[in-house]
Amino acid sequence: MRTPAGDPVNAAYGFAGFLLRLLGEGAERPRRVAVAFDGSLTTSFRNQIYPAYKAQRELPPADLEAQQAWCREIAEALGLVTLIDSEYEADDLLATLSRCLRESDPVVPHRIVSSDKDLSQLVGPQVRLWDFARDELYGPSEVLAKFGVRPEQIVDFLALAGDPVDNIPGVRGIGRKTAASLLAELGSLDAALGDLERVAALEIRGARGIARKLGEQRDQALLSRRLARVVSEVETGLEVDQLIWRGVRPERWAALCERLGFGRLAEQGAALGPSG
To answer: Which one of 28, 53, 130, 230 is most buried, counting C-beta atoms within 10 A?
Structure first.
């Protein structure tokens, strides 16, 4: 797909379609919405403490980078608050918004729309992780069933097992199954590191070797935990009520759709109603 000017636009078109479906879900239609973008592909604070973090990932090609900018324009034209930061990742921005919502109203639930397993650490009584494409909703029991650990153990799980997608090293020789077994027995990474003799005595395969690896790679495990834990204290300058969605910005949406060649989507967006 290309714009009237001949530029590739397929990714932006798909993103626009996703947002229109999200906003038009009838009874599921959200009251407050924000969209977080990654602006720290090589400048995250995690890169500062561990230069190899995500280093294996290729940067997006130029045509996709241009479409990412359009994606932000699309979200804003649809009346949504957008966030981006050069030091903190989108996950950190989402975690911060989630904390603010929980503090603002400890009863009303909210959803984090993502398929990123790292965000499972935010799941709790108020918070669900929603894989929109698969329409799968993860609460605490679903996280436990999928990973073998509770949401509050996800960070320690990744610190032990590592994450090749983000190039988080973890503890060499400890895989996901062993990490889950350790946390089921001891509860946390700190408990394991603080009592290696107990680890060695556990009735799990290779317990003595696991204890030795933990002792030898203690610093690497703690570093991995810093990399895996999302930050929920990013200064965004937003108040919770600023997230209230009041509908599409009709003139801005129409002009953007014309520029990008989104004829059919222009009508769908207009049907959602103007912002107040």
So the answer is: 230
Q: Please, what's the largest Cα pairwise distance for the chain?
A: 68
Rg (CA), the chain: 21
Instruction: Give 45's pLDDT tier (boundaries 50, 70, 90).
Output: very high
Contact 12, 69 (CB under 8 A): no
Predicted local confidence at residue 27, as pLDDT: 57
User: Based on the domain organization, do 34 and 57 belong to the same domain?
Assistant: yes
Cα(268)–Cα(272) distance, integer angstroms: 7
The reply to whether 3 falls in a domain is yes
pLDDT higher than threshold 70 for residue 217: yes
> Does residue 259 lie in a domain region?
yes
Pair 221, 245 in one domain: no
Mean pLDDT taken over the chain? 93
What are the tens digits of pLDDT across the range 166-212? Answer: 999 999 999 999 999 999 999 999 999 999 999 999 999 999 999 99
> Is the model's pLDDT at 119 over the cut of 60?
yes
* DSSP per residue, 28-61: G--SB-EEEEE--TTT-HHHHH-TTTTTTSPPPP
Helices (H), 139-231: 140-147, 154-161, 176-186, 189-194, 196-200, 207-216, 218-228
**Structural domain of 66:** 1-88+238-270
pTM equals 0.93
The two beta strands, 136-138 and 127-131, are: antiparallel
- How many whole angstroms separate alpha carbon 144 and alpha carbon 157? 12
Q: Considering its fold, how many domains does the chain have in total?
A: 2
DSSP one-letter code for 274: B
Q: Is residue 77 part of a domain?
A: yes
